[in-house]
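Reopening: structure tokens for the heme C complex, inputs below.
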Amino acid sequence: MPMPAFNLLLMLAFCWFPVAVLADGTLSTERKEELETLLYQDCGSCHGMTLRGGLGPSLPRDRMATFSREALAHIILQGIPGSAMPGWKALISDADARWLAEHLQTDNPLETLAAPPRPGEQE
Ligand code: HEC
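Re-run output (same inputs, fresh job):
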């Protein structure tokens, strides 16, 4: 095989290799997007697409902040025995769970249940 073609193949191989966790343990943008989809679709099937609750309790930021990051990641990985809350450790890594916990505490769109939805916020 002529070298240029081989180099191109090599480059493609590296580009397509999924970089789930970068060297410093932080998650790739791609993985974060996957986890957000998981949160609002899969977790959302029980906790509500806007996390306002359903079969499972609502998960507003202010209440999530009352848990330690580790406790929240533990709940997500192990589930809550004796309840409908499943553990997710077969599907996500420790780093994934910690990212979800952080997202729930600091970045999820449902800030609090103490106030009505803001204009434009989806119900
Ligand atoms: C099959 C339904 C279901 C799915 C899917 C689900 N949960 Fe839950 N979750 C529950 C239920 C029910 C509880 C309440 C359990 C109890 O304490 O009785 C709960 C509790 C929790 C709690 C604790 C809340 C609190 O205030 O005590 C957190 C945090 C949580 N879930 C996060 C998640 C995340 C993140 C996902 C997705 C990765 C998820 N859940 C997926 C049903 C579900």
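Residues 15-19 have pLDDT under 50 and may be disordered. Residues 35 and 114 are 27 Å apart (CA to CA). Marking as resolved unless the reporter disagrees.
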